[in-house]
Design brief:
The protein is an alpha+beta fold. It has four domains: 63 residues, Winged helix-like DNA-binding domain superfamily/Winged helix DNA-binding domain (Arc Repressor Mutant, subunit A, Orthogonal Bundle); 51 residues; 79 residues, SH3 type barrels (Roll), CATH 2.30.30; 84 residues, Alpha-Beta Plaits (2-Layer Sandwich). It contains ten helices and eleven strands. It starts with a helix and ends in an 11-residue tail after the last helix.
Length: 331
C-alpha cells in the first residue's frame, strides 16, 4: 500500500513539474525521487495512458504539449441545485453516519463554487424543507457500516429488534444490498442464524459492528431480492378496481404503490385503477377512505363490504363519543 501511495505521489509531482513548461530529463527525475530511470519511463507512460499529451523521447527529455491544462472542477447552477436537494434528502432519510459523510462532501463541493453560486446554494438550502419525524440521533450508523461491509466483504454483527416485539436477537449477517421502501431503509442479507436470506429494517438495528470475518459466499443481490419479494408476497390476493375522479389523482400517485397498485386506465373525467391486495388486509380499504368522496368501488363486492364495515365502526365510535353542537360543546 505504501508503494502504491509513493508511486501516486511521484506521478502527481512529475505532472505538476511538466505543467511548468520546462523540459525534464528522466535522469534528473530519477535522482530527485530516488528511483531508476526505468521507473520514471513507466511513470511517464502512465501519464500518457491517462490522456496527458507529453512530448519527447526516453534519454532526451520530456515536456507537456503547450496549452494543455487540467480544467478546474466546476459545476453548473443546475448541478449545484441538484446537490442541495440531494443533501436535504440525505439529511432526512439516511442515517446519521451517511449524513455526516455527505455533509463533508458538500463542503468540498462548495469550496470550488464561484462566490455568487455559493450565495445561491446557501439561499436554496434555507428554502428546501423535507418532513420526517423519525429521530436519527437514537439510531446507530447502520447504513455506512453496511455499505463498508458490502465493499470489503466482511460480516457484521447486529442486535436486531423483531417486528411487533421487544425481543432482541444477535445475528451475524452478510449484507448483499440495501433498498428504501415507504421511507425506511432495509438491508438484504444472508443471516447465519436463520441460514437464509432475510431483510432487516435499519431503524430496528439496536447495535451494529463490522467484524473481521470474511463473507462465506458470493451474493447475487438482484436474484435474491426478486426471490425474497416473491416469497414475501402472499399468493392469496384479490383484484380490486376503483374509479377515481381525476381531480384527486395528483394526491394518490405517490402512495398507491404501497397498496398493490398494478395499472390504470385514464378517461377525460376519471381514472380506473387496478390493485392486487391481500384478502385479509384492511390497508387498502383504510387508504380508500381518505379520498372516498372522490372515488367509487368498481369491484369486488367483498371490498365494498370491507369499506362499509370500517365506515360503520367510525359511525359507532363517533356516536358513542357523544353528541356535539355546532359550536363543538358536548351536551
Amino acid at each position: 500500500m505504501a508503494e502504491i501511495s509513493n508511486r501516486f505521489d511521484r506521478i502527481i509531482a512529475i505532472f505538476i513539474q511538466l505543467q511548468s513548461g520546462r523540459i525534464l530529463k528522466a535522469s534528473d527525475l530519477a535522482k530527485r525521487f530516488g528511483v531508476s530511470q526505468r521507473t520514471i519511463y513507466r511513470d511517464i507512460r502512465s501519464l500518457e495512458a491517462a490522456g496527458v499529451p507529453i512530448l519527447g523521447e526516453a534519454g532526451q527529455g520530456y515536456k507537456m504539449m503547450e496549452g494543455f491544462k487540467l480544467p478546474p472542477v466546476m459545476f453548473t447552477r443546475e448541478e449545484s441545485a441538484g446537490f442541495v436537494t440531494a443533501q436535504k434528502l440525505v439529511e432526512k432519510y439516511a442515517d446519521k453516519g451517511i449524513s455526516e459523510y455527505f455533509e463533508s462532501a458538500m463542503l468540498k463541493i462548495k469550496s470550488v463554487l464561484r462566490t455568487h453560486d455559493k450565495d445561491r446554494v446557501n439561499t436554496l438550502e434555507s428554502l428546501i424543507k423535507i418532513k420526517n419525524n423519525r429521530d436519527k440521533e437514537t439510531l446507530p450508523k447502520s447504513l455506512s457500516i453496511i455499505l463498508e461491509s458490502i465493499a470489503e466483504q466482511y460480516q457484521v454483527k447486529i442486535l436486531y429488534e423483531k417486528p411487533g416485539s421487544t425481543e432482541i436477537t444477535e445475528r451475524y449477517i452478510e449484507p448483499a444490498g440495501v433498498f428504501n421502501e415507504m421511507s425506511y431503509w432495509y438491508v438484504l442479507a444472508y443471516c447465519h442464524l436463520r441460514k437464509e436470506y432475510r431483510q432487516f429494517r435499519t431503524d430496528r438495528i439496536r447495535n451494529i459492528t463490522l467484524t473481521s470475518i470474511k463473507f462465506t459466499r458470493q451474493h447475487n443481490y438482484e436474484e435474491e431480492f426478486s426471490r425474497l419479494k416473491i416469497a414475501s408476497d402472499p399468493e392469496d390476493k384479490t383484484e380490486i378496481i376503483i374509479k377515481v375522479d381525476n381531480c384527486a389523482l395528483p394526491y394518490l400517485v405517490n402512495a398507491r404503490n404501497h397498496f398493490g397498485f398494478v395499472d390504470e386506465e385514464k378517461t377525460p373525467t376519471h381514472t380506473i385503477m387496478r390493485f392486487l391486495a391481500c384478502k385479509e388486509s384492511e390497508s387498502l380499504a383504510r387508504w380508500f377512505l381518505t379520498f372516498g368522496d372522490h372515488a367509487e368501488i368498481v369491484g369486488p363486492y367483498s371490498f365494498k363490504v370491507q369499506v362499509e364495515k370500517l365506515l360503520e365502526n367510525i359511525r359507532i365510535r363517533i356516536t358513542e363519543g357523544g353528541v356535539f353542537s355546532k359550536a363543538g360543546a358536548e351536551f
